[in-house]
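Exercise 7 asks you to align residues with tokens for two separate proteins.
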Amino acid sequence: MTASSPVTEAYLETIYNLAMENQTVRAVDLASHFNVSRPTVTQTLRRLSEAGLVSQARPTGVTLTDRGRSETEALLRRHRLAERLLFDVLGMDFVAAHEQAHALEHWISPEVERKISELLRMPATCPHGNPIPGNGPAGVDYLRDQQGVRLADVEPGETVVVIAISEVVEDESALLRSLLDTGIVPGHRLVVEPAVDGEVAYRTASGRRHRLSRSLAVLIWVRSLSPESGQA
């Protein structure tokens, strides 16, 4: 496993994204996320630690070193800029853009990266609403600046605007497609309604009603709108 291997990239990005949402990252979380055994995770984390990319300690769990964070943000920047190019210029939806960006990101040189960012006028986020490192606040600072809360924590009757879809979800194309089809798109307004059968219920601007499991609703970041902002 080299510093640029797919396994390394997947671990670094997952650790970064979980930490962005203020979650303590544990080996057991990574084992569950990647559907591998604890010994496999332990071995991988040991290699990442030896490479100077992560550190482990109680009670902070697994964290990225300065070098690990820098390398991860460079990866995420290329990927998210590729998504924006595919979404804004080629007109792909945010599911297809995410899938295709995985291949495109490895061909983006620093010069091309800069040109894409300039062409798109320094976009602050990817199509899923997650921050593009280098173009504004990244990580936990972004969600704090946006006053982000989880959709699952919003009280019925509140109007919210979707900020971002958790990167923890992004590798599940079926889930992204489901969210797209039910109005969960950054910038869209929702009116939260009373829960139905334990699920989070909401109404979109078009008046259509939908429900999400709480386990999925916790991965949707929204911002509450004041009454004068208008209703969805």
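Second protein for Exercise 7:
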Amino acid sequence: MKFEDSGFLLSKNKYNENSVIAEFFTKKNGKVSGIIFGATSNKIKNFLFIGNQFSLQFNSKNQSKIGYFKIEIEKIFTPHFLDDKLKLNCILYSLNLIKILTVENQINKSIYDLFFDLYDLFNYEDWLKKYIFWELEIIKLVGYDINFFDYVDNNKLNDKQPYVLTSDGSKEIPSFLLKNDNKKINMSEIKAGLKVVGDFLNKSVLIPNNINYPLSRTEFTKLL
């Protein structure tokens, strides 16, 4: 199997003294893993950051054996956020989310495009609000959509109400999740939104598929 593609680095793990096993999410081949020989050399290690975009050449003798990559940096993204702990942890969690929710060699151009959207939303003042909808879109694209209107009494919705009780009264859902408008929201609403989405992710996606709740999400939300 051979191909040339463009992809974002999702993870890397030491293989031997000079090499790593890397996992990329690519434009035309989905998630692919393989060895990068010489990954510890200055030529490669200085830009081998999770989240950066690369031009890839992949070669594998057969599907039963792990292949290898030849890589060239295409665009640097993550290093621009090394001094911003909150955004950096958001990136690390987002890449981990894509890693755990996608399967090998399953093409999903929409998910690939969302990498660019992720870095773009950091330019906005209300990026945390936008990020919540970005996370929901990733979850939707792997087959798990949620309509929050199904869980609330629509007759109780109004523009002044920041939270809406679920129909059984067991939980408060931030109203911005129902409207997705341009209205500014406070940090309490952001935290509540992330918690609601996290609960949905865990109960509806992760637990049924025997996937552990990602520590990277916990670390990200702790910084708020």
